[in-house]
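Subject: Sanity check before I submit

Could someone independently write out the structure tokens for this chain? I want to compare against mine line by line before I put it in a report. The sequence has 418 residues.
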Amino acid sequence: MKLESLRFLNLVQVRKIAEEFGTPVFIYSESEILKRIEAAKSFPNAYGLIVRYAMKANPNSNILKIMLQNGIFLDASSIYEVERALKIGYPANKILLTSQEPPNSEKLKEIVNQGVEFNACSLHQLELYGKNFPNTEISIRFNPGLGSGHTKKTDVGGKESSFGIWHEFIDKVKNLLQKYNLNVKRVHTHIGSGSDPEVWKAVAKYTLEFAEIFPTTQIVNLGGGYKVARMSDEKSTDFQLIGEPVKQQFIEFFEKHGRKLQLEIEPGTALIANCGSLISEIVDIVNTGENGYTFVKLNTGMDANTRPSLYGARHPLVVIGRNENQNHFQEYVVVGHCCESGDLFTQKMGGELETRLLHKAEIGDYIVMEGVGAYCSGMSTKNYNSFPETPEVLLEQNGKFRLIRKRQTLDQIIQNEV
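---
Independent answer below. Compare away.
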């Protein structure tokens, strides 16, 4: 396997951050985030584009403020995410709630009356909205009957997925729309699409078919799921490559039906994944004999990044020695500090361990884990083994480092216990 390298930090910065803030610590690059925002805003479209950030990817308020300052709307996955965004000043009319668990009627009325849009993800949710807001507009998420993802756990379409209203239930949808006099404003699908242009053409085709069924549709939301190459042997989704055929389909739809539909996309990983690094320290090195493995143990683990244990995901790992001489290499298995066999950072899909070629490591060296901007801090197994929440630092455009989340204390971990 190819030796990985640092993405946006240099050796001096890694050592400086570790010394100033301690380890483990997340570091995010504002400049890298801005580059990816501009790339998303250039997604090919025929009649207008809305870019929504899937805030579950990284909900830190400082990240959200960067999105807001640069014209990005939000996709929220729970009522708590909605309230979190509102609390930091995100305009309600720039937030779309697409949630597995619907809010109760009281909360639903509160946020919708503020201007938050609601995306019905089931027949029950559609009825709930209709009862509370008859004679209005509604967004609906459909399950088009197909999915795409690098594992079953990242595939959010098809018969094995609970996300969205099953495509064969159109008549039930129509009955509820008629019952509550609702007009469909937005149709939405999200299947975990990846980087294959043909898959995206299929996504657009099926979603536009829903727009054809519901003639009041103004917006077509194709969701997210854009593949990001964290490892050097992976390939990222090319927005221009997948977007041009989609744009043509919108044009063809207009020519056939006389309706100009606005395109909406919901990148999360694509906007933030490779904008984040996790700096940790090697606390031990052990081996299992001549025919075994050499294990590097870090002072971080699944309590900071659970993606490897959850998905078998791979992240680049770079050893930064205490000295400059790094001309020797070795195969290692890299593990986290949690007392859990699944806390394994070098593994194959499915959980089997594998080795990773790294610079020869010593106890006290740093290891930088790349590609951790998305679905790491926000999706970690925080406080497992009572490890404190990992602090976060923002590398601002001016080159300065700013703490944006403090390291958690033990008192904070147990403060809600009674």
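---
OP: Matches mine. For the report I'm noting this point. Residues 148-156 have pLDDT under 50 and may be disordered.
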